[in-house]
Amino acid sequence: MNYKTIVLQLLEENPEIYEQLRGQRQVSTVMEHYAHELRTLHLAWKETLTQAIPDTSTDQIASEAMERAL
Q: What is the pLDDT of residue 1?
């Protein structure tokens, strides 16, 4: 899963914020920061959900974890 791509898409969905960051040449820095945060949250949710509902498939856990992380 490419967290940077997800964060970049989210930034681009908010043109005002994206343009402000682009004007300040901060898109890459902000994207890196939030991609790291998203990955950390996603992994934490995966661990939590795996323990809470152990009989669920890893794909389902990963999907649910990403929804919660976002």
A: 61
Say if residues 39 and 3 touch (Cβ distance below 8 Å). yes
pLDDT in tens, the chain (70 residues): 699 999 999 999 999 999 999 999 999 999 999 999 999 999 999 999 999 999 999 999 999 999 999 9
How far out from the chain centre does Cα 52 lie? 21
CA distance 3 to 39: 6
Residue 36 is given by DSSP the state H
Instruction: Compute the distance between CA of residue 15 and CA of residue 60 in angstroms, rounded to an integer.
Output: 32
Please check whether residue 49 is in contact with residue 64, taking contact to mean a CB–CB distance below 8 angstroms.
yes
Distances from the Cα of 25 to the Cα of 21, 22, 33, 51, angstroms = 6, 5, 14, 41
* Gap between the Cα atoms of 60 and 63, Å rounded: 5
